[in-house]
C-alpha cells in the first residue's frame, strides 16, 4: 500500500495533470475553428453595442460546446473596447431563475448581491445597470435545460429588452438536448429570436489528434504510446465521438499505471480505464435526463432484462423491443407513481433524445413484424441501467428490487 509520503513524491507518469482535465480549455481548440468563428459572428453585434440575436448551441456530451463558448468568453474579456459585459453561468449549479439573476448581479454588481433581495428586486437592479450606459449584457447559460423554471428565466431575460430604452441582453444557451425548447411556453419561445449551432461528434482521427496534443503536455516523455492513444480514441468514437470521455480514460489509465508502479501506460491500463469510465459516463448522462425520459429509459431497461413480451426478438446477444410495448410499460410506471403520462408524440421525442445521447438505438422493423413498427435496443447492460435508474427515480440503493407496477 502506498503511503502519504509516496503520494507526495513527484509523479513518474504525469507532468501536468490539469492539461488532461475535461474542464481545461486549451489555447487552441482542434477541429472547432468553424464553430468558434460562428459564435464570434453571433456575438459581434453585441460587442459593438447593438442588440444581437440569441444563439443556442447543441451537441452531444464531449463535442466541445462548453470549451468553445468559454474560449470565446475569455476572448471577449480581453477586448479593450468591447461594449458588452459577459456572464458565464453553469446551470447545473445555478439551476433557477433567482440563482441565475443573482449570479449575474454577483459578477457585475457585487456590492448589491447577497442582501436578501427577491427576483423582482434583482430584475430592477439589472435593468437599471444595463440602461445607465446602454451596455449589452451577454449571458452564457451552459446546460440551460437544467434550469427548473426555465420558462420564467427565458421570459425574464428577454423581457429586459422590452423594458429598457437603451442597451439589451443577448442569450447564448448550451444544451445536449436539441428538443428542450419544445417544452417552453409559447410566450417564452416567441420572444427568443434565436439562431442555432450544432456541434457534430468528433471522428476517431480527430479524437486521436486531441489526445496526442494533450498527452504531449500532460504526460512525461515516452510514457504513452500511439497504440494506447489510438485505442482510447476508438473507444470514445464508438461512444458517440466524446472527447471528454477519451480524456477521462487516458487520465485514469495514467493513474492505474502509477498505482501499479509501471514505467509506461500500457494497453492493459487503457482497457481497464475504459471499463471504469463507461460506468461513470452512464451515471452522468442518466442523472441529467428530464424525469419522463428517465421513466422511458427505465421501462426499456426493465423490459430488456425480462426479455419483453416478444422474446423471439433476440439474436442471442441483444434484445429488441417494440416501441408500442415500451410506451405501454412507460404509462404503467407513470400511473403507478401518480404521474400523468405524456402523449405518444412526446414519447417519440424522448426516444430521439435517448438515442442522441447514445443510450438506446432504434430501427424500423420493415415488413413482416406486426406491420411496420420501430424496434428499440438498449445500448448498455440492462441490470446496470436498472440499478442506476432505480437510484435516480426511487432513491433506492443499488441492486434494490424496485419494480414497475403489475399490469
Can you characterise this structure?
- The protein is an alpha/beta fold and 407 residues long.
- It folds into 3 domains: 167 residues, 3-Layer(aba) Sandwich (Rossmann fold); 84 residues, Helicase, Ruva Protein, domain 3 (Orthogonal Bundle); 106 residues, Arc Repressor Mutant, subunit A, CATH 1.10.10.
- 49% of the residues lie in helices and 11% in strands.
- The strands form 2 sheets. A 5-stranded parallel sheet has the order 2-3-4-1-5, sandwiched between helices.
- Helix 8 packs across helix 10, helix 9 packs across helix 10 and helix 9 packs parallel to helix 11.
- The chain is globular and about 60 Å long.
- The N and C termini lie far apart (53 Å).
Brief description of this entry?
With 407 residues, this protein is an alpha/beta fold. 49% of the residues lie in helices and 11% in strands.
> What is the count of structural domains?
3
- Structural class by sheet pairing and helices: alpha/beta
Which percent range describes the beta-strand content? 5-15%
Please, what is the CATH homologous superfamily of the largest domain? P-loop containing nucleotide triphosphate hydrolases
Query: Which stretches of 5+ consecutive residues score pLDDT under 50?
Result: 398-407
How far apart are the termini?
53 Å
Amino acid at each position: 500500500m502506498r503511503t502519504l509520503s509516496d503520494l507526495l513524491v513527484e509523479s513518474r507518469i504525469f507532468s501536468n495533470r490539469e492539461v488532461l482535465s475535461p474542464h481545461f480549455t486549451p489555447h487552441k481548440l482542434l477541429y472547432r475553428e468553424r464553430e468558434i468563428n460562428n459564435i464570434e459572428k453571433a456575438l459581434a453585434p453585441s460587442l459593438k453595442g447593438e442588440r444581437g440575436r440569441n444563439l443556442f448551441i447543441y451537441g452531444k456530451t464531449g463535442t466541445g460546446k462548453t470549451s468553445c463558448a468559454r474560449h470565446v468568453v475569455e476572448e471577449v474579456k480581453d477586448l479593450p473596447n468591447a461594449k458588452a459585459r459577459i456572464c458565464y453561468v453553469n446551470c447545473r449549479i445555478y439551476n433557477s431563475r433567482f440563482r441565475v439573476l443573482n449570479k449575474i448581479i454577483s459578477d457585475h454588481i457585487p456590492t448589491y448581491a447577497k442582501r436578501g433581495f427577491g427576483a423582482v428586486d434583482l430584475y430592477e437592479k439589472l435593468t437599471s445597470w444595463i440602461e445607465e450606459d446602454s451596455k449589452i449584457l451577454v449571458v452564457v447559460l451552459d446546460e440551460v435545460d437544467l434550469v427548473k423554471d426555465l420558462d420564467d428565466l427565458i421570459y425574464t431575460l428577454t423581457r429586459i429588452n422590452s423594458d429598457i430604452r437603451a442597451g439589451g441582453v443577448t442569450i447564448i444557451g448550451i444544451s445536449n438536448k436539441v428538443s428542450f425548447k419544445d417544452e417552453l411556453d409559447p410566450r417564452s419561445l416567441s420572444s427568443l429570436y434565436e439562431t442555432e449551432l450544432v456541434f457534430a461528434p468528433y471522428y476517431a482521427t480527430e479524437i486521436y489528434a486531441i489526445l496526442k496534443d494533450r498527452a504531449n503536455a500532460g504526460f512525461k516523455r515516452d510514457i504513452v504510446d500511439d497504440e494506447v492513444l489510438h485505442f482510447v480514441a476508438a473507444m470514445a468514437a464508438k461512444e458517440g465521438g466524446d472527447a471528454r470521455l477519451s480524456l477521462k480514460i487516458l487520465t485514469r489509465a495514467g493513474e492505474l499505471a502509477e498505482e501499479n508502479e509501471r514505467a509506461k501506460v500500457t494497453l492493459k491500463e487503457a482497457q481497464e480505464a475504459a471499463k471504469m469510465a463507461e460506468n461513470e459516463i452512464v451515471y452522468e448522462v442518466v442523472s441529467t435526463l428530464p424525469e419522463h425520459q428517465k421513466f422511458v429509459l427505465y421501462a426499456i431497461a426493465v423490459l430488456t432484462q425480462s426479455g419483453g413480451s416478444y422474446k423471439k426478438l433476440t439474436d442471442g446477444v441483444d434484445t429488441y423491443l417494440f416501441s408500442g410495448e415500451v410506451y405501454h410499460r412507460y404509462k404503467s410506471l407513470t400511473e403507478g407513481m401518480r404521474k400523468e403520462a405524456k402523449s405518444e408524440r412526446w414519447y417519440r421525442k424522448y426516444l430521439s433524445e435517448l438515442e442522441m445521447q447514445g443510450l438506446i438505438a432504434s430501427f424500423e422493423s420493415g415488413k413482416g413484424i406486426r406491420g411496420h413498427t420501430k424496434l428499440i435496443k438498449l445500448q448498455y447492460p440492462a441490470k446496470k441501467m436498472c440499478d442506476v435508474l432505480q437510484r435516480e427515480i426511487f432513491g433506492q440503493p443499488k441492486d434494490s428490487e424496485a419494480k414497475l407496477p403489475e399490469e
